[in-house]
Amino acid sequence: MTNQEQNITDGFGRVHDYLRISLTERCNLRCTYCMPEEGIPLRDKAEFMSSEELLTIAKVFVKLGVKKIRLTGGEPLVKKGFENLILKLGELPVELALTTNAILIDKYLGVLKEAHVKKINVSLDSLKADVFNAISRRKYFNKIVENIDLLLVNEFHVKINVVLIKGTNDSEIIDFLEWANNKNIHVQFIEFMPFDGNNWNLEQNVSFKEIMEAVAAYYGIENIVKLEDAKNDTARNYKIINSTATFGIISSVTNPFCSTCNRIRLTADGKIKNCLFSQTETDLLTSLRNGEDLEKLILNAIQAKHKERGGLEEFSNDSVKKIKNRSMTVIGG
Ligand code: SAM
Ligand code: SF4
Predict the structure, then answer these.
(1) Whole-prediction pTM value?
(2) Which of 22, 33, 35 to mutate for ligand 2's pocket (most ligand atoms within 8 Å of CB)?
C-alpha cells in the first residue's frame, strides 16, 4: 500500500494532480472535428464505469494526491444519474470543474452550485448561428448562448473554448474578443488536433502565430499584454488594453506545452490515458472488478508517460496517419 502523501509522478519529475474524467462517450452534438456524423458505435453498458465505480476510482486518485477533477466527455451532462454523481464528487476534497457544450446547463444549474463547481468551460466555435450549427451538425446555438448568459448571471467562471479551423471560423477571432469585452469571459482558442475519424490535416490548423497576428493586426501589438500563466496551464494567456477581454491559446500542434503537464485522463470505460496522444491505456475498471491494487497501476501508468505528445515527435499529415488513437469524444477532451 502507498502512503497518503504520495504524489503521482512521471519519469520526468512532473507531478500529476489533475484528473479529467470522461463521464460518457455519448453527446448531443456531432462537432465535425470531434465526432463522426453517425456518432460513435454503441457499446454494452457494462463496458463503462457505473457511478459507484467511478467514485471508487476517483477516490483512489484523490488519495494519491489529485487536487482537481474536471468532468468532460462526450457530453458530461447527458450522463444518466449526473445529479447524484456530481453531488458525491462534490464531497471529495478537490476542486471540481466541468467542460460542456452547455445545452443542458439550465437543467443542472442548481446541482452544480450545490456541488461547488465554479469553473465551467463551454465549447462554442462560432458566434454565427448558421456556422455553429453547421460545425455541430445540430441546431442548439440559441440555447447555448442563453445558457452561457445564465452561467454568467450566476457568477460561474466561464471560459469559452473555440477550436479554430481554417476557412470555417478563423475569421471570427476578433468577433470573439469583442463579444467577450464587458462580459466576464475568457476565450480559449484551441488548435485543431488530430484524432481518429476527424479528417485532420495540418493545412486546416490555425497556428498560435496566426492567431497572435490576427489579434495584433486589429488591436495593435502594443495593446496585447501577456498574463502570468498558472503553473500547469496548457494555454498561453493574454489581455487586451482597454478591453475586459482576456484570451488564451492552446497550441498543442505548433507549440505544445508538455513540460508542465499535470493531467491524467480517465475514459468513460475506465482506462487511464497518460497523455491525450498516448497510444497505450491502462484498464482500471477491469482491475477494480477483479479486486486488484489500483494505486500501483496508476503510478506505473504515469511513470510510463512520454516526454511530449505521447511520444510523437511532430504533427504532420504523414506522422498522424501512422498513429492509432481514439476519437476525442471517446478519450474525453
Ligand atoms: N462536450 C463537451 C464540450 O464540447 O465542451 C466536453 C467534451 S469535448 C471533447 C472537450 C473539448 O475538446 C471541447 O472544448 C472541444 O472543442 C475540444 N475538442 C474536441 N475535438 C478537438 C480537436 N480535434 N482538436 C481540438 N480540440 C478538440
Ligand atoms: Fe460533443 Fe463536445 Fe465533441 Fe462537440 S466537442 S461533439 S459537444 S463532445
Answers:
(1) 0.94
(2) 35
